[in-house]
Amino acid sequence: MAKHKSGAPPGLPSRCDGIVLRVHKQAAKQLFLEIYTVQEGLLRVLTEKGRGVRKGMPAAPLPFSKISFEIYRQGNVRILSEYECAVNRYLQNLTWNEYVYSQIFTELFLALVPPQEADPALYRLLSQYADAVCVKDCRIVTIIAGWQLLSLTGFAPDPATVRLYRTGAAGAGETILSDEDAGAEWREERLTPAFRAFWRRVLEYDWDCRETVRFSAKGLALLEDLLYAYVSQCSERRLKSISFLSSL
C-alpha cells in the first residue's frame, strides 16, 4: 500500500474510495487524476507527484489501481491531499496488448459516464475489469465490459430488434445501429439469430462465473467493431485509442 501526503489546503476534507482511470502530468510536480469513486462518481483532481511515497512504490498512482484519498476544494478545483493506493503488480507489467485495450476501455468509460454521478453498478464493473484485464484475455474482457458499460449507462440497444447499417464498402465507411430505417444512403446488414443470441450472452456475462465460456471468433470480431462504432455514435466523438489497434 503506497501512502502519500502533500500540503493540505485549509478546509474540511471529504474521504473517497475509487479506481484511477487516467494520470496526466500537469506541471513539474503536479498530476491531474481522473478517478471513479464510490461516493461521488467520476472526479478530476490535482495532486503532487512522488512526495512521501514509500521506497519501491511508483511515484504516481497507476491506472486501474484502487485508491483511498482525501480531497479539499479550492474554488472549483479539487485537491487530493492524502492517499493510499493499492499497487497491483500486474498493472506495473502490462503487455502492449493489455495496455492498448485498457486505454480503449478507459476512453469508452470516460465517453459514456457523466462526472459526479455515483453508481455502485458502474464501480463494480470497473473493479471487475481492473481485476480481469491483466489475467484474462484483454480483448475479450474489454469487449464484454464495453457492452455492459453501455447497458449500465442506458445506451445499449436491444440485441433482439436493433438493425445494423453501413455506408461504403466492407471495412470502410460509417456504421450505425438503429431501431428505425436509417434512410436510402445506408445499407442494412442482416444480423443472424445466432449472433443476436451471442450478443445477449455478452450483455448478461457473469464476471464471477468460474466455468470456461467459449466465444465465437467471428461473433467477437463483429461485436468489437459494433462496440467502437456505437460508442462513437452515442457520444458523438471519434475514439482516439482505437488507432493503436493497428499496431497489434
Model description:
The protein is of the alpha+beta class. It has 2 domains: 11-90, Beta Barrel (OB fold (Dihydrolipoamide Acetyltransferase, E2P)); 94-246, de novo design (two linked rop proteins) (Up-down Bundle). The chain is 30% helix and 26% strand. It is built from 5 helices and 9 strands. A hairpin with a 2-residue loop joins strand 5 and strand 6 (77-86). The longest helix has 19 residues, at 217-235. It is globular. The two termini are 33 Å apart. Keywords: DNA damage, DNA recombination, DNA repair. Residues 15-85 form the DNA replication/recombination mediator RecO N-terminal domain. This is DNA repair protein RecO. Belongs to the RecO family.
Q: Helical amount among residues, as a percent range?
A: 25-40%
**Largest sheet entry:** 6 strands, antiparallel
Shape: globular
The radius of gyration computed from the alpha-carbon positions, rounded to a whole number of angstroms, is 20 Å
Oligomer: single chain
Structural class: alpha+beta
Kindly report the CATH topology of the largest domain: de novo design (two linked rop proteins)
CATH first level of the largest domain: Mainly Alpha
**What letter string, H or E per element, gives the SSE order?**
EEEEEEHHHEEEHH
According to DSSP, the number of beta strands is 9
Tally the helices: 5
Low-confidence stretches: 51-57
What's the overall average pLDDT, rounded? 86
Q: What percentage of the residues does DSSP assign to strands (E)?
A: 25-35%
Question: Strand sequence of the main sheet, in spatial order?
Answer: 1-6-5-2-3-4
The CATH architecture term of the largest domain is Up-down Bundle
- Measured between the Cα atoms of the first and last residue, the distance is 33 Å
Tell me the domain tally. Answer: 2
